[in-house]
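Me: I keep going back and forth on a fold encoding question. No explanation is needed for now; the record alone will do.

Assistant:
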Amino acid sequence: NAIYRAGGTDVPVTDGGTGSSTAATARTALGVPYASQANMEASAANVVVTPDVQHFHPAMPKAWGRVAADGTLGASHNVTSAAKNATGDYTITLTTAMADTAYAVICSCITSTRARYAAATAPASSSAFSVFTSNSGNADPSDQAFAFVVFGDMA
């Protein structure tokens, strides 16, 4: 039986090791490939997912954010800007565009009261979409804070 010591030789795969002392060569020795954008979009299994490709998976949000009633962009990811165009009418611009306009935006008004407000969205382009907020009681446009999440295929 061989004895392996910390800082010593690489432990062979046949003895339960990785066959290497670095992560990159261990991955190669074990035959585990890195995921590509195509792997992520196809939900492929048996690949190592790294942060630079994780966002390509269909279940990962491509952008998200919070916008104040005055149009000020708060916390966000992959969002360049938020603009208030008119009462209850906002435009969100993405940093990295989506592949097309067939993406989904989930949006909800943020309120500290029990008042009922609605938020509707409409993709304007692959890099921007509109949010319309209104009072649910009478459907009149109303300036309301809101949060959103974007799902779909990135360009």
About this structure: The chain has a mean pLDDT of 85. The chain is about 10% helix and 35% strand. The beta strands are 63-67, 73-77, 79-86, 89-94, 104-110, 117-123, 128-135, 145-151. The CA atoms of residues 37 and 53 lie 6 Å apart.
